[in-house]
């Protein structure tokens, strides 16, 4: 009995160890992903956002502001276009899912009934007017003549079993059986 408990404890300990190892692996993977995202973000910012150098004169500062405003407008228009596309796609998805739901709701499977149908009728239903083959299965059967076998003759000769039992019952029946045996 204690042997089984030790096995169970070992299996449980192994399971716990595997679980903790998997969790550690998952944690390191999450950290790696976060670091990769941070590097990707830094690369994107370095590529698309050059370091800001503030000019000394008022004229240059106004030019910089105008450039920044133009970039902000371009990005805002892009964001708006993307948002509209997303809304349109979401609406289409909702419409399609509603149509799907409606189609599912309207169609009810009819309860199936057993129908007695001959092979000819079934072929006619499946093939339509093309059906010309006659499936009269009984026509193809062999004709077998019944021959009297010895068993059947014996049974006919024996006749009614009650009568046979009555003949064998009592002392006379035993006497007949004894005589027949000799």
From TrEMBL:
Keywords, in A-Z order: Acetylation, Actin-binding, Coiled coil, Muscle protein
GO CC, sorted alphabetically, is:
troponin complex
Give start-end ranges for the coiled-coil region(s): 18-106
What's the domain of life for this entry? Answer: Eukaryota
GO biological process: what's one of them? skeletal muscle contraction
MF term (GO), any: actin binding
UniProt-listed InterPro entries:
Troponin, Troponin_I, Troponin_sf
Query: Family assignment?
Result: Belongs to the troponin I family.
The role this protein plays is:
Troponin I is the inhibitory subunit of troponin, the thin filament regulatory complex which confers calcium-sensitivity to striated muscle actomyosin ATPase activity.
Complex and partners? Binds to actin and tropomyosin.
Protein name (database record):
Troponin I, fast skeletal muscle
Which species is this record about?
Answer: Eurystomus gularis
């Amino acid at each position: 009995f204690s042997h089984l408990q030790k096995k169970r404890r070992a299996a449980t300990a192994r399971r716990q160890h595997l679980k903790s190892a998997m969790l550690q692996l998952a944690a390191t993977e999450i950290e790696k992903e976060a670091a990769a995202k941070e590097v990707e973000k830094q690369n994107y910012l370095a590529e698309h956002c050059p370091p800001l150098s503030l000019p000394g004169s008022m004229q240059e500062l106004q030019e910089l502001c105008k450039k920044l405003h133009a970039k902000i407008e371009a990005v805002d228009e892009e964001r708006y276009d993307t948002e509209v596309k997303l809304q349109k796609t979401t609406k289409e998805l909702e419409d399609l899912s509603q149509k799907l739901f409606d189609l599912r709701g309207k169609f009810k499977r009819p309860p199936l009934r057993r129908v007695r149908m001959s092979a000819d009728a079934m072929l006619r239903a499946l093939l339509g007017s093309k059906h010309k083959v006659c499936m009269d299965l009984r026509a193809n059967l062999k004709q077998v003549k019944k021959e009297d076998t010895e068993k059947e003759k014996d049974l006919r000769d024996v006749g009614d079993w009650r009568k046979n039992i009555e003949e064998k019952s009592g002392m006379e029946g035993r006497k007949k059986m004894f005589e027949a045996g000799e």
